[in-house]
Amino acid sequence: MISAKERGRENGTRKDSEAVMIGASKKLEARRGAEGIGRPGGPCRHALPRNVGFAGGGDRLSELNLMKKFRVTPVAFLLLAIVAPLSGAVVETQFDLGKQLAIDAEVSALAAITSDRNDRTVSFSVRSKHGLLIRAHSIWATEDGGRTWHKTGQVGRGKGPSTFESAWSRTQADVFALADGLVFESTNQGRQWKRKGTASKSLANFSTIRGDEAGTWLLMAGQRSIPIGRKSRNEVPKYAGDVASTPESPSMWAPALLRSADNGRTWQQVQLPRGIGPLDKIVVSGSSAVVIGPYIVFTSIDSGRSWRAGAEDGLDNAQEEAYPLGAAILQTRFWISEKNGTVLSGELARGSLSPMAKFSGPIGDLAFIDSCEGFGLGENGFLATTDSGATWRGIKHAEDVVAFSASPSRIVAATHNQILQINLPGNRSAGCGN
């Protein structure tokens, strides 16, 4: 999970492929990088067998203040109705504001790590004694639960990637990386790399990669360019504007998703519900997956073979403040956090989302370790919830966290120069679900 502060490091170093995601006529920053229906129906402490929190996905939260208000004109509304049909009437929904009280947790330093604020954190996970910290230009590993770290890989080595735009560690040794539209795999913590198959860049641009831990399937998400009518070119929402679009050949960006069932050797295009704009984050748990982008939420419960569009009950999808930032999955339930601080949740099989809280600020990456207890990264540090996301509180002494890894047994977090262990008070979810 990646923090707001860490995301801001990229503002001056975005590549042209990322700039394509925004409209050329406005200074709209690229959006890179759950949601409850109330109290959960079942008891608490349905813990996951593996870590469910790890760094990764789009880096969007730090750029929120740079966004300009987007309003839908009548012509754009018609375009949205054609490309991304509305799910129903807008109904005003009331819900409580999330509380912002601090939790006095026990935070201890496990290790000091090399500090390089220009080398942003891409992915972070600690599984028992083994863990990986993947930055944009280097990979660090631990074999003692985070107490010591050593560099195992770096960009530009051999036939490896030139940078780690997106990276995902399937195991403590097996790493997939995405760079300049190419997919790479390392089975020894980044020491050597093998280039995998990928789709032609003429078909789409891809920015994030994830898969299941069993090694049976992978997903790669991004955007593809589609032609539109000349009269509609100026009414395309900013987040879907293709900078290559011209009056003679107008075009816009639409979601793109590829799936691989042979460990990345070949990729097939996945049919998605209609939508506009890019996809920039993937979350996978078992056979379930959620992909998100500006105003887009797609869910799958069959290992990414088929997808449905998530419907947000009672919310206005046309609001610029309402686009998704983070996502989390726990068994049959999923959560979404939005830029405006709204937290929603729903059942994966249905795909519908209902608001359960509105926090005072945006919450980025999410992870839930049981039906009550979850964690997220806000603008001012590490956050926790003990009631399924209805209220969120900051963790004292964890304000500088840029990434975290959460499991039922432990919480490990990373700052720019330290690895921390966070022990929260006991009986935190005593009343949840009752």
Describe this structure as you would to a colleague.
With 434 residues, the chain is mainly β. It contains 3 helices and 30 strands. The strands form 7 sheets. The chain has a 5-stranded mixed beta sheet, with no helix packed on it. A hairpin with a 2-residue loop joins strand 8 and strand 9 (182-186). The protein is globular. It starts with a helix and ends in an 11-residue tail after the last strand. 50% of the residues are buried. Residues 3-100 have low confidence and may be disordered.
Secondary-structure map:
Layout: H1 4-7, H2 16-19, H3 74-83, E1 102-103, E2 106-112, E3 121-127, E4 130-135, E5 138-142, E6 150-154, E7 166-169, E8 175-179, E9 182-186, E10 194-195, E11 205-211, E12 218-227, E13 251-260, E14 268-269, E15 281-285, E16 288-293, E17 296-300, E18 308-309, E19 311-312, E20 324-330, E21 333-338, E22 342-347, E23 352-358, E24 363-368, E25 374-378, E26 381-385, E27 393-395, E28 403-406, E29 411-414, E30 418-423
Quick recap:
By secondary structure, the chain is mainly beta. The chain has helices spanning 4-7, 16-19, 74-83, and strands at 102-103, 106-112, 121-127, 130-135, 138-142, 150-154, 166-169, 175-179, 182-186, 194-195, 205-211, 218-227, 251-260, 268-269, 281-285, 288-293, 296-300, 308-309, 311-312, 324-330, 333-338, 342-347, 352-358, 363-368, 374-378, 381-385, 393-395, 403-406, 411-414, 418-423. Strands 1-27-26-25-24 form a five-stranded mixed beta sheet, with no helix packed on it. Strands 19-23-22-21-20 form a five-stranded mixed beta sheet, with no helix packed on it. A four-stranded antiparallel beta sheet has the order 2-30-29-28, with no helix packed on it.
